[in-house]
Amino acid sequence: MGFNLAWLAVVYISFQLLSIPFALRASKERFIGVLDGLASMVPLGVSLIVIVGKPELLDTPQRWEAAFLLLFIAAVDLFGGYTFNLALSRRMMDVG
């Protein structure tokens, strides 16, 4: 399970982070950015709630592995996306 889940995580993160420059030019409104940020926050929140608040749902080591992998993926997606957006918005606004 772990190897298949790791490949799925790599594909998901690659798609998410590579799609940011293409979506940034198409979306001139802040609403799209807010939706993109919320789409990154939902998996992070769900995994944190399950790991911290409901650990009895994670009975097997495979479920713990999947929960921590989802937490890591969501954190990379959220903070990596923020970093990419910040870097690209400064380049587009020609700051410094």
Record the SSE blueprint.
Layout: H1 2-18, H2 20-26, H3 30-53, H4 61-93
Helix pairs in contact: 1-4, 3-4
Features:
96 residues; mainly alpha
Description:
It is a single chain. The chain has four helices and no strands. The chain has helices at residues 2-18, 20-26, 30-53, 61-93. The radius of gyration is 16 Å and the shape is elongated. It has one domain.
Give a brief rundown of this model.
The protein is mostly helical. The chain has four helices and no strands. It has one domain.
Radius of gyration: 16 Å
Give the SSE string.
HHHH
Summed up, the domain count is 1
Which parts are unreliable, with pLDDT below 50 for 5 consecutive residues or more? none
Strand content: under 5%
Largest beta-sheet characterization: none
- First-residue to last-residue Cα separation: 47 Å
Q: Fraction of residues in helices?
A: over 70%
Shape: elongated
> How many helical elements?
4
Q: How much is the average pLDDT?
A: 76
Structural class designation: mainly alpha
Tally of DSSP β-strands:
0
